[in-house]
From TrEMBL:
PANTHER family: 2-AMINO-3-CARBOXYLMUCONATE-6-SEMIALDEHYDE DECARBOXYLASE (PTHR21240), 2-AMINO-3-CARBOXYMUCONATE-6-SEMIALDEHYDE DECARBOXYLASE (PTHR21240:SF27). Pathway: Secondary metabolite metabolism; quinolate metabolism. Belongs to the metallo-dependent hydrolases superfamily. ACMSD family. Monomer. This is 2-amino-3-carboxymuconate-6-semialdehyde decarboxylase. Pfam families: Amidohydro_2 (PF04909). It comes from the Bacteria. Its EC number is 4.1.1.45. Residues 5-329 form the Amidohydrolase-related domain. Keywords: Decarboxylase, Lyase, Metal-binding, Zinc.
Length: 351
């Protein structure tokens, strides 16, 4: 039986302090519990997202994992909490609150969870310090970052030192869209989620390549959420632009050369689209992820992989678990028996 690792899941502490009350301003997310099993994430007095206890309760998550056949979840913060817009010290406190919670959760259930942290990217020095703490003190497996920092793309010069240290420390970076482009044109129909996020992700990926960041730091480990958004499908157009505008070139090779370094989660819902992603970037560059526990998540995790015809058992094992461990620099032997012995444990856990 193949091990199933859900690389893309989000979590938030149940006891989430009111940073708006402490620091002022209306952009801080707060958690307004509506019942014992649900809450609203509030921003500026409005409901940003309705959530259930799945988003904070490890017991509930493990029950869902056992029911849906998931051995391990990789936990990452909810992007609305990045708070890159805030004062660096306040944002650091927000990041540390979540990093400590995620570290405590995976330490309590080391066979079921792996943790990713967050850092205040608006200040590179502070971000590097917190990345150091996450990786070397808390023993988290990587860092989740947003697709832009206060409207600056990821090729902003002030982020160069951050990427340098991420490469030097071999820190896996999970890039998730937030503060998406064209927000004034996407409020209707929830296009922010279905159009804005994929476009935002494509811009982030293209910025890292075209600017020369990936050429300068060739060993950076980067995975993009949501199957890379629209990036895989506009990559030939980026190559064409590189070809016809030599005066704009900042890299030795065309964009597709550097894109081969990227990883992508599998959250695109469609077997045909998944096959394209695999053929374009390789079977070893796609990682199963569901976006648990939100409405747009894939149920059950790995469903799109299961629906691809003619996949060998070895390829399925790569997509469903081995690629995640490889990306996260985790030895397979550390979890080698999980698929056989971890399922069915939820009934032994008492709330």
């Amino acid at each position: 039986m193949e091990m199933r690792i859900d690389f893309h899941t989000h979590i938030i502490p149940k006891e989430f302090p009111d940073f708006a009350e402490k620091y002022g301003g209306d952009r801080w997310p707060t958690l307004d519990q509506t019942c014992t099993c649900g809450a609203n994430i509030m921003v500026a007095g409005k409901v940003f997202r309705e959530v259930t206890d799945q988003v904070w309760c490890p017991h509930k998550r493990i029950q869902d994992m056992d029911r849906e056949g998931v051995d391990i979840q990789v936990l990452s913060p909810i992007p609305v909490t990045f708070s890159y817009w805030a004062d660096k010290e306040a944002a650091l406190e927000m990041a540390q609150l979540q990093n400590n919670f995620i570290a405590d959760t995976f330490k309590e259930y080391p066979n079921r969870f792996i943790g990713l942290g967050t850092v205040p990217l608006q200040d590179t020095v502070v971000a590097i310090q917190e990345m150091d703490r996450c990786m070397h003190d808390l023993k988290l497996a990587g860092i989740e970052i947003g697709t832009n920092v206060n409207g600056e793309n990821l090729d902003s010069p002030h982020l160069t030192e951050f990427f340098k240290m991420a490469e030097e420390w071999n820190v896996p970076l999970f890039i998730h869209p937030w503060e998406t482009m064209a927000k004034d044109r996407t409020p209707r129909h929830n296009f922010m989620y279905t159009i804005g996020m994929p476009s935002e992700t494509a811009l982030a990926a293209a910025s890292l390549i075209w600017s020369g960041v990936m050429e300068k730091f060739p060993n950076l480990k980067i995975c993009f959420a949501h199957g890379g958004g629209s990036f895989p499908y506009i990559l030939p157009r980026l190559d064409k632009g590189w070809e016809v505008w030599p005066h704009l070139r900042l890299t030795t090779h065309p964009p597709s050369h550097y894109a081969k370094k990227f990883y992508f989660d599998s959250l695109n819902y469609d077997a045909l689209t998944m096959k394209y992603l695999i053929e374009r970037f390789g079977i070893d560059k796609v990682i199963m992820g569901s976006d648990y526990p939100f409405l747009l998540r894939e149920i059950a995790p790995g469903k799109v992989v299961d629906e691809i015809e003619d996949l060998s058992d070895s390829d399925k094992k790569l997509l469903l678990g081995k690629n995640a461990l490889e990306f996260l620099n985790i030895k397979e032997t550390d979890y080698g028996t999980k698929a056989d012995d971890s399922r069915g444990k939820a009934e032994t856990i008492r709330s």
